Amino acid sequence: MTATVLEIDDALAQYDPVMGLEVHVELNTKSKMFCGCPTEFGAPPNTQTCPVCLGLPGALPVVNAKAVESAIKIGLALNCEIAEWCRFARKNYFYPDMPKNFQTSQYDEPIAFNGWTEVVVDGETYRIEIERAHMEEDTGKSTHVGGATGRIHGASHSLVDYNRAGIPLIEIVTKTIEVPPAKAAAVARAYVSMLRDLLLSLDVSDVRMDQGSLRCDANVSLKPHGSDVLGTRTETKNVNSFRSVERAITYEITRQAAILSSGGKILQETRHWHEDTGITTSGREKSDADDYRYFPEPDLVPVAPSREWVEELRATLPEAPSVRRARLQEDWGFTDLEMRDVINGNALEPIVATIELGVTPAAAKKWWLGELARSANESGQDLDALGVGPAEVAEVQKLVDDGTLNDKLARQVFEGLLAGEGTPAEIIEKRGLALVSDDSALLEAIDRAIAANPDVVEKVNSGKPAAAGALIGAVMKDMRGQADAAKVRQLLNEKLGI
């Protein structure tokens, strides 16, 4: 019986993974790609539609100029060439959420092409070649009702919401990615993370992966060590978190390796990623470009951005992510290892935002890479999906700074925040977490510690002041950790005349 998967080390001992990543980015324009309908997320179903985005007869599209501007900025930031002349095409296929039965996209004439970028994984820099970044429109959204998985198989009926149909999309397509086999999945994760940071800095998308405004299609194939012949690829669709990108690619490597090592063949197909089980399942047989019957869109004029406009947009680009990271590392005083942990933990942007709220770099790093990272790992989530943001971290740290909390109590506040128990102030009140600042209460606890530990007092009085640490510990235990250790030490020293 053929094994479902191989262990990842066994798979990589036999095969080299080859990847291609297609990242779909919903732009943050106020209107859709080819009509004036709004793009607000979460509106009631089918309330943001018109004859154009519903594909009704006689409706004529018009290109969104802001979307073209965003596409050029993305292309420039990825070191692409910007086309002097390009046009849209019709990509023909049937699916219920395609109201026109074709998608208006770009095929052989993209607006941006032949670019590159770099990512850093474990201190090593990897160059990612960009094939193209092209403009298109998003599809609607199907909801399958009555089944156990939320997919069409087994559902009793389906509902279609066309609000998303026509939302401006940029699809960023890499060339073939071949890196050291053991680094493949991590490089893919780092690339998608880097793109998110880049797009945020360009202010062209909110890149909310939980809302689908940034999603990745991961193409994976395997070839035997030493071979130049590429294997048959699969495409895992709509992976919507950094962690899932890494897990989905790792799973496909192990699944394909098991099939190939047993003499089987890989089917070229799309596959669905299941976050709960950590596996992919078959979707549909993958179509080639010829199957889509591309032809130029007759209802849209070509797009021909002037060189002057392109250069004006180039002048507005922010720092490249790699340059920005180096600057921030120097500003923050982080070591290479500390910065590597920040990047690998996808904590850069939360830390930046927290520091901007007045928190020191060291304190921001402590919380994001400590309590919050641990919770994210345990729950299998990314940091930005925890429900705790820079504002809450800054508020907790301010309470530490002003003496209301110590680090131990602050960790309990974060525990409450992650559990949805309210604001930091509400959690402190509910759990009774504030530090005791009343000197008289602290002095009473100190008196109890002295009375209970005469041998320790004798050591202190005989010239061994370090022994006082045991008394401080006794006071902290008496106060259930709700005392400022520095304040306790001060009062104890005064009491003992140290």
From TrEMBL:
It holds the Pfam family GatB_Yqey. It comes from the Bacteria. Residues 349-496 form the Asn/Gln amidotransferase domain. It catalyses: L-aspartyl-tRNA(Asn) + L-glutamine + ATP + H2O = L-asparaginyl-tRNA(Asn) + L-glutamate + ADP + phosphate + 2 H(+); L-glutamyl-tRNA(Gln) + L-glutamine + ATP + H2O = L-glutaminyl-tRNA(Gln) + L-glutamate + ADP + phosphate + H(+). Keywords: ATP-binding, Ligase, Nucleotide-binding, Protein biosynthesis. Transmembrane segments: none annotated. Its EC number is 6.3.5.-. It is an enzyme of class 6 (ligase). SMART domains: GatB_Yqey (SM00845). Belongs to the GatB/GatE family. GatB subfamily. Heterotrimer of A, B and C subunits. Allows the formation of correctly charged Asn-tRNA(Asn) or Gln-tRNA(Gln) through the transamidation of misacylated Asp-tRNA(Asn) or Glu-tRNA(Gln) in organisms which lack either or both of asparaginyl-tRNA or glutaminyl-tRNA synthetases. The reaction takes place in the presence of glutamine and ATP through an activated phospho-Asp-tRNA(Asn) or phospho-Glu-tRNA(Gln). PANTHER family: GLUTAMYL-TRNA GLN AMIDOTRANSFERASE SUBUNIT B MITOCHONDRIAL AND PROKARYOTIC PET112-RELATED, GLUTAMYL-TRNA(GLN) AMIDOTRANSFERASE SUBUNIT B, MITOCHONDRIAL. This is Aspartyl/glutamyl-tRNA(Asn/Gln) amidotransferase subunit B.
